[in-house]
Specification:
Blueprint lengths: L1 H5 L7 H13 L34 E6 L4 E6 L3 E6 L17 E4 L4 E7 L4 E6 L3 E6 L5 E6 L5 E9 L2 E8 L4 E5 L21 E2 L1 E2 L7 E5 L9 E6 L4 E5 L10 E2 L11 E6 L6 E6 L3 E6 L4 E5 L12
Antiparallel strand pairs: 1-2, 2-3, 3-4, 5-6, 6-7, 7-8, 9-10, 10-11, 11-13, 12-17, 14-15, 15-16, 16-18, 19-20, 20-21
């Protein structure tokens, strides 16, 4: 609640109430490790609570990601990102409440989404000030940011393509931005001094945009699905995009030479299914799983069936 007041949140506003809930949760009984079970006591098909992580009990967690080293990356409404080592969670004496962040970084505004790319050792955050911020996975520290507009950025994805990498950012107005990355082909490292391969005249927006906020972006990023990604709008729509056959060189669409440039990505499928709103999507390259406001999950299967070679839905 104090944090909400510091950030100028009205107590009766939606975010103000969330701040109060976060503060009340910190004072609950569940902060004691004795209230939780050991992970080895888990029963198949059931979730076992292990405790609360320090530092996250007085803010609103907006995004969670695991990396291949079993580290948990957490982004929060207070503008921080924290990294916790959970590799020893199967040890009998493991206490999650005693774990301190391995890394911690502070951004100037709320972080609303996050994505990791271990091949580049880079992470990306979508921020409430309408920008994208990049950080190093090696030390968790931010090294560059770009402001796209005054509209809040709601989702972010680091996309692997056939000819490089790009950061995708979904905004509250439904627009998706495509930002190619400057990556050294020999070292496979992002140029931290000039990470985005765009100029001032580059139009990074993709069309068409969602009619509601673009809340989620997803991609498998490997094999034949490189360059394919999905976007989900709060309006209940899911779109599948390809960037492989519609490249615009090393940059996005340039306003000056827009007639000669091709779009950085093309929408190839537009799907509906939720009447109220869509929450999130994920994909394994063959199927798209989405959840929404009707307390339901929708699974769309694009894998080829035997015989006719057609995709099933």
């Amino acid at each position: 609640q104090e944090q909400g007041e510091e950030r100028g949140l009205e107590p009766d506003s939606a975010l103000g109430k969330l701040s109060q809930l976060a503060g009340n949760a910190a004072k609950g009984k569940n902060s004691d490790r004795s209230e939780f079970k050991n992970i080895n006591d888990a029963v198949e098909g059931k979730l076992i609570p292990l405790g609360n992580l320090k530092g996250l009990d007085k803010t609103i967690v907006t995004c969670l990601k695991f990396d291949s080293k079993q580290r948990l990356w957490a982004a929060a409404y207070d503008g921080t990102t924290r990294t916790y080592d959970t590799s020893k969670c199967y040890d009998s004496n493991f206490r999650i409440s005693s774990q301190k962040p391995v890394f911690r970084a502070d951004y100037t505004d709320s972080v609303l989404d996050m994505d990791l790319c271990e091949e580049l050792n880079v992470g990306a955050c979508a921020t409430a000030d309408g920008g994208v911020a990049l950080f190093s996975i090696k030390d968790g520290q931010f090294f560059c940011g770009i402001i796209l507009s005054e509209v809040a950025a709601r989702s972010v994805l680091i996309l692997k393509k056939q000819n490089g990498y790009a950061v995708l950012c979904g905004r509250s107005d439904g627009t998706i931005h495509h930002l190619p990355l400057n990556v050294d082909s020999e070292t496979n490292r992002v140029d931290q001094d000039n990470p985005f391969d765009v100029v001032e005249s580059t139009d990074t927006a993709l069309a068409p945009k969602h009619t509601g906020p673009c809340l989620t972006l997803a991609s498998q990023n490997e094999g034949t699905t490189e360059g394919l990604f999905c976007s989900g709008g709060q309006d209940g729509t899911v779109r599948v995009w390809t960037s492989n056959d519609h490249e615009s060189g090393s940059r996005g669409t340039d306003v000056v030479n827009s007639e000669q440039q091709r779009p950085a990505a093309k929408c190839i499928y537009a799907l509906t299914g939720y009447k109220l709103w869509l929450g999130s999507i994920c994909t394994d390259g063959r199927r798209i799983v989405s959840d929404g406001g009707e307390n339901s999950l929708i699974v769309r299967d694009f894998s080829k069936e035997k015989g006719n070679g057609k995709a099933s839905l």
